[in-house]
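---------- Forwarded message ----------

FYI, see the Baeyer-Villiger monooxygenase record below. Original note from H. follows.
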Amino acid sequence: GSMEPDQKWDVMLVGGGFGGMYLLNKLRNFGFDVHLYESGSTFGGTWFWNCYPGARVDSIVPTYQFSSDETWDQWEWSEAYPKREELEAYFRHVGKLWNLYSNASFNSRVVSAHWDIEEKVWVCEISNEQENTTTIVKSRILLFCAGLSAVPYKPPFEGVDDFKGKIYHTSRWPREGVDLKGKRCGVIGTGATGVQVIQEVGPVASHLTVFQRTPNIALPMDQAPLSKEDNIKLKKDMPETLELSKATWAGFLYSWHDKCAMDDTPEERESFYEKLWERRGFGFWVGNYKDTTVSPEAAEAAYQFWRKKTAPMIKDPYKREKLCPEVAPNPFGTKRISLYRTYYDIFNLPTVDLIDVNENPIHDITENGIRLQDGMEVELDVLIFATGFDTITGGLTHVDIRGTDPSFTLGDKWKKGCQTYLGMCSNGFPNFFWVYGPQSPGPFSIGPTCIEFQGDWLTQLLRDLRYPEVEKKWREMILEAGEKGLFKYAKSWWFGANIPGKQRECYNYMLGMPEYRKKCGEVRRNGYEGFQLK
Ligand code: NA7
């Protein structure tokens, strides 16, 4: 898209993932002059940036897509949990279908947004890092769709600059790929990303050292190829799928079980766990006993079952105890669970080591690799940071956003605690909103489910702001009355006909003074109905 300096929009969207794409389509359909800015070079958001090997979605296909039929009607998924590459193709498909490219600017990072009190607009500075240019854009409404994982986190280890090999953060992986064959690799971090990248790097690297702080309580992924017939069935079931995902706690196709864990006998519990385990996927998490993340006994029972299933996969007793410790690292289910395919098998490879950085912390990074507290040096060619993000708030707090009081940013306001209303806006930042962010159910939801709900809600709000309901009704009544009789046929200034180019419509209340007196009286008696008294 083109980008004129000093462009002024009704609504400016920041971020081109699910949120930005959904809102661009929706707001444009309602006649808003809307434009989207994305720092990546195409749509996809998190799926554009996170192009490390093995990146794939952990939410099962029918729930992880836009809900409107035209988007899935012409689209086929090849797997229940598609790869990043397939998701990127999906975003291309939707971008074309909704014709979004003409209202989007790529390689455009919003670095600051300042509210102009006089003009009542957001003045935003947009930087194009490729071309090293900066543009100023104004917008009445600013709507952030930067997601939960916009700002990568790299722990500040000493000596990073001394390292002679290559360092990559998973979420800023080179798009052209990296050849890891025969390389000595190190991965720091075993979150959702760590699990996926370790599965890919393990078999390829000449040696892989995993630096683990907290073991991931990973569940087996119910991955499956999807045939043409499967796709037809998925489409046929979409109405029920959508209804179900709207009804569950976080948009998953599972609900918590209606019993508490200790309501069952140990045998009943065992057989319930077995059934959940059979289904694979997140069932053993969000389909578990309803008190799993509430009662310590329930959490412990689920953890020990998980451990019993998982531990036998790992041959080496040291690695086994590190990956599935006897004592749960956190209450079961209270930290992001991942879905694995080969994660535990990878640790059976003779070329894969595990280091517990609680026992032996990373001291610093040297020119050859990582030096641990006890002096041991792990030599590496490639060091991979799978250390996550300034999750949830980072996408908002790392941008210089200043509202009615320019002396502080949104990030400053939230330093001592996040303050929002409905998890979509924050006082002192007028005409500023976001989707899929702090203090909403977003961080523990399937993205599209939360995004579409918030996107619809905000669109309605913006429409109501533009034309308050009472004005809409008043206008309808005026025009309807104007249609009656012969007045509408005359070229009169009652109908705006005397000024070339002026909107031709009735500008007069045609029902007469007595009716008008009555109406205004009613409004007053009803507490000035339709006014917002301050
Ligand atoms: P996560 O889930 O934040 O995982 C980051 C990992 O990095 C995690 O294992 C951390 O250990 C580890 N970490 C972070 N700092 C350090 C230091 N200093 N030393 C050692 N290890 C460290 O990020 P992901 O990218 O995996 O997942 C991102 C989410 O975004 C994912 O859940 C998706 O749903 C969307 P810790 O567990 O904190 O002990």
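H. also flagged this: The first helix runs from residue 18 to 29.
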